[in-house]
Specification:
Elements (H helix, E strand, L loop, with lengths): L1 E3 L14 E3 L5 H4 L28 E6 L9 E8 L5 E9 L13 E3 L6 E6 L13 E7 L4 E8 L4 H18 E5 L4 E3 L2 E10 L6 E7 L4 E5 L6 E3 L5 E10 L4 H6 L5 E8 L5 E6 L2 H12 L4
Length: about 300
């Protein structure tokens, strides 16, 4: 079996809270590092930001992926008050054709006059995968008097939110074709448990190939060294593969700060297509076995 320590889709959150002052986030931290084209090539990624919209009622907005908020399915909404009076905000909401709407947050914050940007959490719903999506982003801002403002927003890292949307739609397509889950029988050996990864075809079509699976900050997941790890086809609609999960990082910081210890990743391809990441959350007996492992985990 080969050990896979790959990170979950989101990074480890290093702090908690609803509002954060603006901090410098490098392109490398967000996975959107611009690469200069070689001679004779044309870059397809523009490094020139789009023109910023004019302030609306003294407010400017930016929206971007944010490692602090990502585990809770939240983006970062940067709000800056450029007026000469403080503005009291009671909640915000994302308006976008990329993701289903969720209720306005209940996070009161005072935006000081002519102050630097504050970053608020901005929840988003499931990806909308039917039809062509408009990449335009709008922040709905609710004030303490109950009035709401639709504020056009510029993306912090152009293309990042669209890529997030595309990944979620690719994963949804995989899960519409096959059910991928942990088995119900687990055997413990020290700091590790052994069980199975189960795949059942939902609808006929191209083969569903699980190319790999990975763990997270706390748990290491090991699969057999074969490719694909497991696959289902019209002729063989159900399959299983042995896996081992061990608790390899049990220091208090990791256990306290990592918010999604029961979420793993499977890399799955439909037919000859490129494999895409699909979240695999432990439930039932698998979750119980992992919780028992975590309860006795020692640094």
């Amino acid at each position: 079996m080969r050990p896979i320590l790959g990170p979950v889709l989101v990074g480890l959150a290093l702090a908690a809270g609803c509002v954060a002052e603006e901090t410098a986030v490098t392109p490398a931290e967000t996975g959107t590092v611009p690469v200069a084209p070689s001679a004779g090539e044309t870059s397809t990624t523009s490094t020139v930001p789009p023109p910023a919209p004019a302030p609306v009622r003294g407010l400017l907005a930016t929206i971007g992926t944010n490692r602090l908020y990502a585990p809770q399915r939240e983006l970062g909404l940067g709000l800056r008050n450029v007026s000469d009076a403080p503005v009291a905000v009671t909640g915000v909401q994302l308006e976008s054709s990329l993701f289903a709407a969720v209720p306005v947050t209940d996070d009161p914050v005072l935006l000081p006059a002519a102050f630097r940007r504050l970053v608020l959490r901005l929840p988003y719903g499931p990806a909308r995968c039917d039809g062509e999506a408009d990449p335009a982003l709008v922040a709905v801002v609710r004030f303490e008097d109950g009035q709401e403002l639709r504020l056009p927003a510029v993306e912090d890292y152009p293309g990042g939110i669209a890529r997030l949307h595309d990944r979620e739609c690719a994963a949804a397509e995989v899960l519409a074709r096959a059910d991928i889950r942990f088995g119900d029988v687990w055997v413990r050996d020290g700091v590790a448990i052994s069980g199975e990864l189960l795949v059942d075809q939902r609808t006929p079509g191209p083969a569903v190939n699980v190319a790999d699976a990975s763990g997270n900050v706390i748990f290491t997941l090991r699969v057999d060294d074969r490719s694909p790890v497991v696959a289902v086809t019209d002729d063989e609609p159900s399959a299983r593969a042995p896996i081992t999960i061990s608790a390899d990082r049990c220091d208090p910081h990791a256990v306290a700060e990592f918010k999604r210890p029961m979420v793993f990743l499977a890399w799955v391809a439909l037919g000859d297509a490129e494999a895409v990441p699909v979240e695999l959350e432990a439930a039932g007996p698998a979750r119980a076995a992992l919780e028992a492992l975590l309860a006795t985990c020692r640094p």
